[in-house]
TrEMBL record:
It comes from the Bacteria. The keyword Isomerase does not apply. The keyword Transmembrane helix applies. This is Cytochrome aa3 subunit 4. Signal peptide: none annotated. The lineage of its organism: Bacteria, Bacillati, Actinomycetota, Acidimicrobiia, acIV cluster. The chain crosses the membrane at residues 6-25, 32-53, 82-111, 142-162, 168-189, 201-221.
């Protein structure tokens, strides 16, 4: 027999189903309204099933157990579950991360609320029921909450460090580390401090850090990071004759081993020469394997800083728009050497050979042959 509560929920579920069907047929199946209606249908269906199963929480007279006489303790998990469902609905039309957070909230609600409801019916002793819940869930809750807390602190601190000047960031890092050390020292030498004081200090520090992180997110990244992100300094090579502030930073001028070299290119007295592996004498061309990495050593034996640049034809980046394919080493000084690895998937176009050259040095190049 249907209970009064289940009748109302069945009616709402039926109305939601009809509304969803009409919306899908008459409006648009992928619109936001369809997502909202399907969410309402799922939620009311779930509540209807729970109500039918529990019969509105009513029991027949004489069958009431002692453990059910006390009023259930208040719980935040229904609110968390509702927020989870809302995040799932929003996530389906926004970003995947919101959807994932919604799923996590729903799963946490199912576990926590189920264990809480079960523990409250274990006995008529409220304290004993609470201890059962703690024994089951605390080993899970504490590590998860600690991980979330650490992640929030790290993220907040990173937002602060990315928003302020890098010189000021070093000072703030030192001050923060010193403050943490001093507080830890104070607690260790004064163990009689009240637990509430220690908790207050920790909470104020965490809230302050999170607040600073939120404020820093509002300010955004500092100017040099914004420029670097827009121009992508560290992802593309700058292969001109001039020195790059970013690509030529932290130059490595030595090679650990040369046994894997397919060829060696040397710049001597303004002339570019090639030594191919297994071929005696100087060469004006080298042959590399198609679709396989070929390692080339560039040695600068001339005064000044130079780089070796590989000109590998053109590629289409849009309709009617071609772009030069160029890769290069960093600028290296006299007596230094550096690897250049080439992976070429097809031979050069007739009349437009692949070449190795030194930017700023005219009339000197090595032809790269791809069979």
């Amino acid at each position: 027999m249907f209970t009064p509560g289940s009748k109302y929920l069945i009616a709402i579920t039926g109305l939601s189903a009809v509304s969803f069907a009409l919306y899908m047929l008459l409006v648009h199946p992928s619109a936001l309204g369809a997502v909202a209606l399907i969410g309402l249908l799922v939620a009311t269906s779930l509540l209807t099933g729970i109500t039918l199963f529990t019969r509105d929480g009513h029991t027949t007279e004489g069958n009431t157990a002692a453990a059910t006489l006390d009023t259930p303790t208040p719980s935040m998990w229904p609110l968390v579950g509702a927020a989870g469902f809302a995040l799932v609905l929003v996530g389906t039309i926004t970003t995947p991360i919101v959807f994932i957070f919604g799923i996590v909230a729903i799963l946490a609600t199912l576990v926590e609320w189920t264990v809480q409801a079960w523990s409250e019916r274990s006995s008529a002793d409220v304290a004993y029921n609470a201890s059962i819940r703690e024994r089951i869930l605390n080993p899970i809750e504490y590590p998860v909450l600690a991980a979330i807390g650490v992640a929030v602190i790290i993220f907040s601190f990173s937002r602060v460090m990315l928003a302020i000047n890098k010189d000021a960031g070093a000072i703030i890092f030192i001050v923060a580390a010193s403050a943490i050390s001093l507080v830890g020292l104070l607690i260790s030498v004064r163990p009689q401090l009240k637990k509430g004081i220690v908790q207050t200090i920790a909470v104020l520090a965490a809230v302050g850090l999170v607040g600073a992180g939120i404020a820093s997110m509002g300010f955004g990244l500092r100017e040099d990071l914004v420029v670097a992100a827009e121009e992508d300094h560290y992802a593309h090579q700058e292969c001109g004759a001039e020195k790059s502030d970013h690509f030529d930073k932290g130059v490595s001028e030595t090679i650990a081993a040369t046994s894997g070299a397919d060829a060696t290119i040397e710049l001597v007295d303004g002339k570019l020469t090639a030594h191919a592996q297994g071929i005696e004498g100087l060469q004006d061309s080298i042959t590399v394997r198609r679709s396989n990495p070929s390692n080339i050593i560039f040695r600068n034996k001339d005064a000044g800083e130079f780089r070796l640049s590989a000109n590998l034809g053109k590629k289409q980046i849009a309709d009617g728009v071609m772009e030069d394919v160029v890769t290069c080493t960093q600028l290296i000084s006299e007596g230094a050497e550096q690897w250049l690895t080439l992976t070429i998937n097809k031979p050069a176009v007739s009349g437009e050979p692949y070449t190795l050259s030194v930017p700023g040095l005219e009339g000197q190049s090595i032809v790269v042959v791809v069979p």
